Input
Amino acid sequence: MVIFALMESSSHNQTSSGLTAPSWSPYVVGIGIGVLSWLVFLIVDKPLGMSTEVSKFSGGVASLFVGMDKVVENPYWASTTPAFGYSTVFLIATAAGAFLSAILSGTLKIETVPRVWREQIGGSPAGRALGAFLGGAVLLYGARMAGGCTSGHGISGTLQLAVSGWLFFAVLFASGIVTAKLMFRK
Amino acid sequence: MNLPISTSSTAGLILAGVFGLIFGILLHKGRVTNYNVIVNMFRFKDFTVLKVMLSAIVVGGIGVYIMMAAGLLEGYHIKPTNVAGLVIGGALFGIGMVVYGYCPGTGVAAVATGSVHALIGFLGMLVGGVFYALSYPWVKAHILNVGDFGKVRLPEASHIPEFIWWIVIAAGSVFLFKILPKAEKQSE
Output
């Protein structure tokens, strides 16, 4: 793995390195996430995860409309109670880290329609917005039904050799490949 | 220092900030905050996502295995294997990941790199979360209890020792890392 990382980084031939580089070798990034998962397990006894916190955010936003009393009457939010805590900070810091990395490497840019979508589906920002909104809704619904996402199942679950993590990983890839085949025909 | 540190303590919250910051930097440097990189994985044109995930799994997993064997960790954090929930949820997740172009973590990170559509999809995720909470009693009664095997791990389920699993996963990953760049070149 380390050899792959070295091979990749030597072939990248970047003019800038470290935090100012636009990207790193995917193997270096993967090793980094692996080492991060050791530290998180060792220091706070938690796996890496994201989708539980996003669904708590949903409850938090819902509470602005109907009040927190009503939200926690729901059996799901009664057990996954929306409250500020460790995973809230983790979510915000993840965004901050990506922002920092984009700023330092000069790759921060407003994007309304990404290239593949424009080539395959169309250039309308409204069309892309609708797709992103519906896709996001289906994504989080699926994550909650499965009990995790790419972080919680796909990395944290698989690396603990959880059957649930590997099954999720396999189904997610199969479904994604079929969806991509149907959606991108050009 | 006594480990683990409570996640509800001030130190725990500071650590959440440090871990999240590192995670966000890694996601951006790994280019998985880029819509095109994620969807091109499922089109077999760019295997960055698979390279990142497999190296994270192998390095993370072998390290956690060793730390566990050395008695440094409290225990595993395994999610239950509810077959119906995982298959239906995973299938919906795959559809959502291609249509949205991100997963929850990379979506959150992409918002901060200027992706407006990632932000709109984040709002979509919040709506998906509300729908899930509303349908939860039905889902719990009709889906989550179908094929429920509890918190099982591959070594126990297969009676194949843990280190054999790691040899197979590491060797399989290295094999993929050797052939994936060729597949990427062919699709160009």
Q: What stands out?
A: The mean pLDDT of chain A is 93. Chain A touches chain B through 126 residues (CB under 8 Å). Residues 1-111 of chain A form one domain.
